[in-house]
Specification:
The complex is a heterodimer. Chain A is an all-alpha fold. Chain A has helices at residues 3-13, 19-28, 34-53, 55-66. Helices cover 79% and strands 0% of the residues of chain A. In chain A, helix 1 runs antiparallel to helix 2 (19-28) and helix 1 (3-13) crosses helix 3. By secondary structure, chain B is an all-alpha fold. Chain B is 78% helix and 0% strand. Chain B has helices at 10-22, 26-44, 46-68, 70-79, 83-117, 133-138, 140-146, 152-195. The chains are: A mainly alpha, B mainly alpha. At the A-B interface, helix 1, helix 3 and helix 4 of A face helix 2 and helix 8 of B.
Chain lengths: 67, 200
């Protein structure tokens, strides 16, 4: 997966970013420099890493919250 | 050497403690944010949205149905030598269940009338959208005939509605599982595009 496509996925899947800014950010990707893509991509990749690694824990906590 | 820091009185300390007590737990706020985000994304998907409504309808209908069982519980408790339990719990449950069932039928009448008058343009929420008005109101005859001993809402409307909602819930569940697996692979690939090779 190339970095610009990966960044699009990471923006869509982010829970830190507000929905209102996701679309403008995605539209901005084609005009972003490699450095900008790398910066934002790394930040969102760290978020995704946390979410993927703690998915079970998050799910468990959500269930506890809903019960 | 004397300390120059201002003295903190006991009252101020007590104030700080109570302030700390009312601070929301950061972890809980985080969990709520995740839950809100998940529900928000589920709400955008028409299949998931329909399943959420179907699940809520089922929960409310079952609750009304349990109330509908009140007179039976009361009679059973009376037969078992617990008349007090029968009249209090059974009576309260029965009244609430009957009332809710009656209100649900009346509401259905309003929903269908509004739908008819606006040529289907306005659709108010309905607890049993797959149950016809005639079935909903007609089954009340069984209540009258049996002295409310027959839990008509549970046996007819709730059961009929659940039969219609069950495939919706199952479809959304199986689609959500399939989508989650695909999404997880996509998220992992996207994350790896930036982190693999960086030792993170």
């Amino acid at each position: 997966m190339d970095k610009k496509s990966a960044l699009k996925v990471l923006i869509e899947e982010s829970i830190l970013l507000h929905d209102g800014i996701k679309e403008p950010l995605i539209n901005k990707i084609p005009s972003m420099t490699d450095e900008e893509v790398d910066k934002l991509g790394t930040f969102l990749a760290m978020e995704q890493k946390e979410l993927l690694e703690n998915e079970e824990e998050i799910e468990k906590n959500l269930k506890a919250l809903l019960e | 050497m004397e300390s120059e820091s201002p003295e903190v009185t006991e009252e101020q300390l007590a104030g700080k403690e109570s302030e700390a007590l009312v601070q929301p737990d950061a972890l809980d706020v985080g969990r709520l944010a995740i839950l809100a985000s998940l529900l928000q994304s589920a709400h955008k998907d028409p299949v998931a949205r329909e399943a959420i409504y179907a699940g809520l309808r089922t929960a409310i209908n079952v609750t009304i149905g349990i109330g509908d069982l009140g007179p039976v519980i009361g009679a059973l408790a009376g037969t078992l030598g617990m008349p007090g339990v029968g009249t209090t719990i059974g009576g309260a449950l029965g009244t609430a269940g009957e009332g809710a069932s009656f209100i649900a039928d009346g509401w259905k009448g309003l929903v269908r009338s509004v739908q008819y008058l606006t040529l289907g343009k306005v659709r108010l929420p309905d607890l049993t959208p797959d149950v016809g008005l005639i079935e909903a109101a007609g089954t009340e005859v069984f209540d009258a005939a049996t002295g409310s001993m027959l839990p008509s809402h549970l046996l007819f409307e709730a059961r009929h509605q659940f039969q219609a909602d069950k495939p919706r819930i199952q479809q959304a569940w199986s689609e959500a599982r399939g989508r989650a697996a695909t999404k997880k692979a996509e998220r992992t690939a996207a994350k790896d595009a930036f982190l693999v090779g960086r030792g993170k």
